[in-house]
Amino acid sequence: MRAARIWWCAVLFAAAPALAVEFRSVGESAAVLFDAPSLKAKKTHVMSRGYPVEIIVAVEGWYKVRDAGGELAWIEAKNLGERRNLMVKVKLADVRQTAADNAPLVFQVEQNVLLDLLELTDTGWARVAHRDGQGGYIKINQVWGL
Which terminus, N or C, of the chain has the lesser number of Cβ atoms within 10 Å? Predict the structure, then answer.
């Protein structure tokens, strides 16, 4: 019985790194998504530049990804960039000057707008920038892509 518990603990600890969530964003141009990891597979839709996706699994130059709506599809690895973007998931989000609820408001962002992720704090906020150059801090529970 003790050996079985030790074995299960070892399995759980070995699997722990696999539980980490990884997000990337579509690169510099729109990308076609497929229903299988092959250019011969059925094309399901096109994702715009900068759209954040959750990486589910990697297979020889392909990633199975989940979008903000929960849909799964395959994308060629070369179509994902290094830059990280976040998508606003609430109707209207406040971007503040500092990472505090009472900080001055810099601007507001509507749902589905993309923001560049500049820094993730350990206080529940992310430092972001809008494509027009404005930047500030947004609550991480108001965005998707982290």
Answer: N
Domain count for the chain: 2
pTM (2 decimals)? 0.80
CATH number at residue 114: 2.30.30.40
Cα 48 to chain centroid, rounded: 14
For residue range 69-112, list pLDDT tens digits in order: 999 999 999 999 988 999 999 999 999 999 999 999 999 999 99
For residue 99 the two structure tokens come to 């990472």
For residues 71 and 24, state if they share a domain.
yes
Burial class (CB in 10 A: 0-12, 13-18, 19+), 73: buried
- Concatenating the DSSP letter of every residue in 71-103 gives -EEEEEGGGEESS-EEEE-SSEEEEESSSSTTS
Same domain, 72 and 89: no
Say how far apart CA 106 and CA 43 lie, in whole Å. Answer: 40
CA distance 93 to 113: 10
CB 60 within 8 A of CB 36: no
Name, in order, each residue with C-beta under 8 angstroms of 21's C-beta and a sequence gap of 6 or more.
54
Residue-range definition of the domain harbouring residue 68: 2-81
